[in-house]
Amino acid sequence: MLPRRNVWPPPPTPPTSESEKLARLEAEREAKRVSNAIDDALAAEREQRKRPSNAKILLLGQAESGKSTILKNFQLYFAPKAFHTETEAWRPVIHLNLVRSVNFILGLLEIRHPSTYSGARPRKPSTPDNALSGQLRRLSISLAPLRQVEESLSNRIAGSRPIEEYTDSSEADRYHPAKASEISLRSGAGWTAFLRFRHGGSTSFDRTEKADSEDLQNRRILSACAGDIMTLWAAPEVQRGLKDREITLEEQSGFFLDEVQRICKEDYVPTSDDILRARVHTIGPEEHVIYMESAHETMRSWTVTSQRVAWAQFFDDVHVIIFLAPISGMCLADSLKLWRTICCNKLLISVQFILFLNKVDILTRKIKAGIRFADHVTSFRNKPNEPKEVIKYLSDAFATINQTYSPRKRKMHRHDTKATAVVIDDIREVILLNALSATNML
């Protein structure tokens, strides 16, 4: 049989109904919309490929200098969607911070002879340690369940490994004479390590269900104890006892005793400020990649590594080093020594430095309370005992070390306030310029 020949011209299209015509036009519009979306996505991908891939930043500073806080500030600023997806996962950490402060106070009440504890140098107590009021004895009993809550939260955050493996002290020294205890995570666990613990550290449904059940029980206990926690913190005997021992819990990381009523609610959801204040101590180097969520950012991502100064020489491929110096403690001998170490390191000769004088707010409160900076740093002499004068003096001291010990002249970028949007933008510009310069794009 011969193949059927095409008829030309083709027969006219039979007339269609109005509804069919509208349907065909709608299909054509949808096809065009999809085509345009694909074209836009391809164009965005081409632009993304043109952007430099990564900026490398190294955070350095002594313990509790604020490295984790500035890291969280970076994520909140550059990757807010990712930051907020982790909100609920921070709740156990914040609750643990709060509970450990409470248990620290209860532990002090139980200590009859504080001077027997290592490092304790208390003044003579205003009242004998064994003469607690009836109210404090009642609070000690009513808040006893918080010991169990602390253990539950610690095990959840530390995972399946025993908590002792993560801590630097024995159980006998659990309540440090001048500081509330904190949980420590090994390197690799990371600042958001507890995200996996929120899911039980496993894909097992039973494990997750158990973790959720324990979390609910802990929240109910905290809710029931909220009133007594506030009463304990406000008790004059407690405040006098802390003052006698020269302990200022308000200045310690992870302090939430000023937000008990809100944080102890069963339906509590952490705010961004709560997450920035939360404290998890990490041991060893930590590396975090922040993927820029704004299409207008030049760099695709930042790799931020938090490390001990002793290992800084092994990170000579970074674009910028951010050095955090906590100035709230008045005596900065350790920070100045660490700063001199990295300034004179020849392997870091091409790396730009950003100095961040941290915890200025605490320093300001101390000076306004009457503490004289010159009593702690004699070289300050008779300069005005004002926060601005002290900050300038310290900033100049770091700048002098940089000029004296750097193998070659190096510009130092200084910041002496908390990580506001303006400060982060300034830091961003320095990092961007150095990253582009290193990749020969400038």
From TrEMBL:
Binding-site list for Mg(2+): T282
- One GO term of the biological process aspect: adenylate cyclase-modulating G protein-coupled receptor signaling pathway
Instruction: Tell me the SMART domains matching this sequence.
Output: G_alpha
Q: Name one GO cellular component term.
A: cytoplasm
Please provide, alphabetically and separated by semicolons, the GO molecular function terms listed in this UniProt record: G protein-coupled receptor binding; G-protein beta/gamma-subunit complex binding; GTP binding; GTPase activity; metal ion binding
Domain of life of the source: Eukaryota
Keyword terms, alphabetized = GTP-binding, Magnesium, Metal-binding, Nucleotide-binding, Transducer
- InterPro entries (alphabetical): Gprotein_alpha_su (IPR001019), GproteinA_insert (IPR011025), P-loop_NTPase (IPR027417)
The record lists GTP as bound by L276, R277, A278, R279, V280, H281, T282, N358, K359, V360, D361, A419
Q: Where is this region: Disordered?
A: 1-28
- Pfam families from the UniProt entry: G-alpha
Composition bias of kind Basic and acidic residues appears in 18-28
Q: Which PANTHER family match?
A: GTP-BINDING PROTEIN ALPHA SUBUNIT, GUANINE NUCLEOTIDE-BINDING PROTEIN SUBUNIT ALPHA HOMOLOG
**Name listed for the protein in its UniProt record:** Guanine nucleotide binding protein, alpha subunit
